[in-house]
Amino acid sequence: MNEIKKPRKQMVYFYIILLIILFAFNFLLLPAISQKAIPEVDYGTFMTMTENGEIGSVQIQTNQILFTDKSEQKIYKTGLMNDADLVSRLHDANVRFTSQIQNEISPFLTILLNWILPLALFYLIGTLLSRKLMEKAGGANSLMFGMGKSNAKVYVKSSDGIKFEDVAGEDEAKENLSEIVHYLHDPSKYQEIGASMPKGILLVGPPGTGKTMLAKAVAGEANVPFFSMSGSEFVEMFVGMGASKVRDLFKQAKEKAPCIVFIDEIDAIGKKREGNIAGNDEREQTLNQLLTEMDGFEGNTGVIILAATNRPEALDPALTRPGRFDRRVPVELPDLKGREEILKVHAKKVRLADNVDFPQVARMASGASGAELANIVNEAALKAVREGRAYATQKDLEESIEVVIAGYQKKNAILTDQEKWTVAYHEIGHALVAAKQTATSPVQKITIIPRTSGALGYTMQVEQDNHYLMTKTELENQIATLTGGRAAEELVFHEISTGASNDIEKATKLARGMIARYGMSEDFDMVAMENVRNQYLGGDVSLDCSEETQTKIDSQVIAIVKKQHEKAIAILKENREKLDELAQHLYKKETITGEEFMEILKNA
Ligand code: ADP
Ligand code: ZN
What we know:
Layout: H1 10-36, H2 43-51, E1 55-60, E2 64-69, E3 75-79, H3 86-92, E4 96-98, H4 107-137, H5 142-146, E5 156-157, H6 171-185, H7 187-193, E6 200-204, H8 211-222, E7 226-230, H9 231-234, H10 241-256, E8 259-264, H11 267-270, H12 281-296, E9 303-309, H13 317-320, E10 327-330, H14 336-347, H15 358-364, H16 370-386, H17 394-406, H18 417-438, E11 443-447, E12 458-461, H19 472-493, H20 501-516, E13 530-532, E14 541-543, H21 547-574, H22 576-589, E15 591-593, H23 594-602
Parallel strand pairs: 1-4, 6-9, 6-10, 7-8, 8-9
Antiparallel strand pairs: 1-2, 2-3, 5-7, 11-12, 11-15, 13-14
Helix pairs in contact: 1-4, 6-7, 6-8, 10-12, 14-15, 14-16, 16-17, 18-19, 18-22, 19-20, 19-21, 20-21
The structure holds adenosine-5'-diphosphate (ADP) and zinc ion (ZN).
């Protein structure tokens, strides 16, 4: 995102000033110096010398008279007198005389040198100085010079030549946005029929899903300028600065229309205005200015505003009403196919082995965003370089998924032997419970190599295809799988450890969701007791019910988890031999694949 900067003019100014100084020296100072050297005589001497015929030639200038002796060797000067007979006397004395203006400066030049040059000089020095000061003081002090003219900042950014084909997956979003591209190409078709484009389009989705890329791609496809600014950049220290930036931005945009204006993180200015006393004046003024600007131009001026946010629910309703950001384009986390395509797009930038299995990598990276997938490919390439290879392999990619998800391997982790056994049984417990419930391979990979994220081992789940709905049984099975780790520890060591905290958290969240959100309990039927807040940022929930209900929910959550925990213990008890065999295998090898796991499980 390189801003297009104005060329540096300071060196040019410097040379101009230097030239002026030289010019002044040549034309003002030198003549003065050279004339100083001519001896001055009084007018009487001049008259006497004329009468005595001691003068060779005379030159009458506007303010003095220069004359030479008979031999024309010596030059003298004298002041000018109101002497009417001078000409006739000189003629009588047979002297060569002229009134030629030789060393004189023309009136035009005089004006130039006396008036325009000093003015220009002062102006140049002034602008230079103020520029220097502005640079030093940054934006805040520009208040002194330009009253928040945002330092004549140019908001046009490069769209980096990004086209729709560079944004993998996200087909719905692209389809939606291609209408804008058509419109920018040929507005007349839309104008004829009387349709006007929406002024604002809101791209909503989790971080790193390509919202900025999509906005750039719209500009790139339509081949129009791309104005971009982040919401947080508008919020300044001084009240009114943000508003003036908004004004500037739209002024520049309107001059360059058709164009795209992209406002990232619009929630930074567009948050709901609340009636609290200590309101944020600056933010509100900025938002108001944005609303005014959006109302101020007609639908067909060709300025299209795209804005991105991952907190759409926090936006002020005034922003989302028709006529402003009335169209909402979801940019979701990529599904399996989307992940594969994103991997392929980024794989073009690095050198990879020919036999890389993209579908497999995409399956392993379930839940990863576009930005994370880009990172995975890059990590793989880095690893290849680190190990002195010319290209990255499938194994590098798989390893870098783990790096991105769980952190780097801890090289010299200090697990005691007992801990290592515990982790091995714990992980196999998860996998075994999962396998017994679904009768398919539940895992991609199990490893007990500690990671920098703090995980002592983990089980990488597989995702064979896209899953949009979860049945009640599936949810229950998932809870059972989550309790499987702890269940194995209990069964084998008759002792429990802290290693299950993450499992406990996830199991509780699922069970609570079943009751309070998905209406899967008989007592509460289809009543929502929970609200999801930041859907795209982790999804915190807030309870929305009376205290008694809360108590009831809690006891039901406990009942669900308990039932599944017991189920898990039962499954493991039934398969105790397999549990031991698999745990020993994992202990020895530290990492096993899903296939190895299934093979041991199926062997009678
Ligand atoms: P957002 O604005 O949604 O937070 P960005 O557009 O800034 O995300 O994406 C960040 C990076 O992630 C991009 O530079 C790109 O490398 C990668 N990326 C994200 N989504 C995609 C996608 N759909 N196709 C290709 N690359 C993607
Ligand atoms: Zn676990």
